[in-house]
């Protein structure tokens, strides 16, 4: 074997070090696009029936941990609980405990006015009908770019914006990738723009739904901000123009959008504070059928209290935690009433000037009205009867 052949052999089969969330791991250079079943630190075991001649046999039935990925001929290296370490092919390894399947969020489970939900579903239906729209009907000949489905969800916190984004991704059977301000903003000049480009490159390659969650710096008018934010919006507009997937923006407040961005938004949908009827549905859908619910739980009474969906979720979980802590045989109305009152207090405690917080302002306004005072008095009386 000459030096050229040797160099080619080493380049194909010798591992290189690649960064990984759990530390440095080995990745075979001859298959950089390999889709890995296991990740660093996963607990695994050797499958039943694997030929003992393939290894020394001392690890059969012994749990182990993935310590390296790739590394030449084999796919994974495992450190076993008995101290042995060996490399294996992926076909001979299984999870020690099968991973729990991800619960899919259905569009039906998102509580939102039907006309708004229909508007959203109609917009993303482009993804399912791409071949018909752009090939069969010929729109690809007219629109060479600017075919992304861009949605803007706006409304106060806890009204289901992120939940709807997840439901859409699950409906399309695509991964939802969420980016907040911390993932985008950068103190390094040009850092945010490079991040935006990387986000879209990854979404194109891996067919992901991209969610920019509360990234208000992306939703500004370039005429009203400085050069740094102007360049950021320019980069975003350029990436959207050559993207053909689904992009979702969420914000708690809808300000003045850049005219060019506004033209690229397929649908702008408000997620309003839920009505009493919607709050009742949210309460009912957030309590699983297996939960031991006391017969005195009154969903109409619970729905009287002005809470958004996110706060109802917190109240449900806190009621369940309290019932379990008290070793109660079921979850009672008093558990929910206590949880609701604590959630309302928390809304005020975590906002220094809570009257400026849009959700709290709505709650406070309701509580100051005759109806709101009635609800508070009713809950106070109810607490007295249940205690």
Task: Give an account of the 3D structure.
By secondary structure, this protein is an alpha/beta fold. The protein folds into 3 domains: 3-95, SH3 type barrels (Roll), CATH 2.30.30.40; 107-270, P-loop containing nucleotide triphosphate hydrolases (Rossmann fold); 276-386, Helicase, Ruva Protein, domain 3 (Orthogonal Bundle). Helix content is 42%, strand content 15%. It is built from 14 helices and 12 strands. The chain has helices at 3-13, 114-128, 130-136, 161-172, 181-184, 191-206, 227-241, 259-264, 276-285, 299-304, 309-325, 333-349, 358-368, 370-386; strands at residues 15-18, 25-28, 43-46, 64-69, 76-80, 85-88, 93-95, 149-154, 175-179, 208-213, 246-251, 267-270. The strands form 3 sheets. A 5-stranded antiparallel sheet has the order 6-5-4-3-7, with no helix packed on it. A 5-stranded parallel sheet has the order 9-10-11-8-12, sandwiched between helices. Strands 1-2 form a two-stranded antiparallel ribbon. A hairpin with a 4-residue loop joins strand 5 and strand 6. Helix 13 (358-368) crosses helix 14.
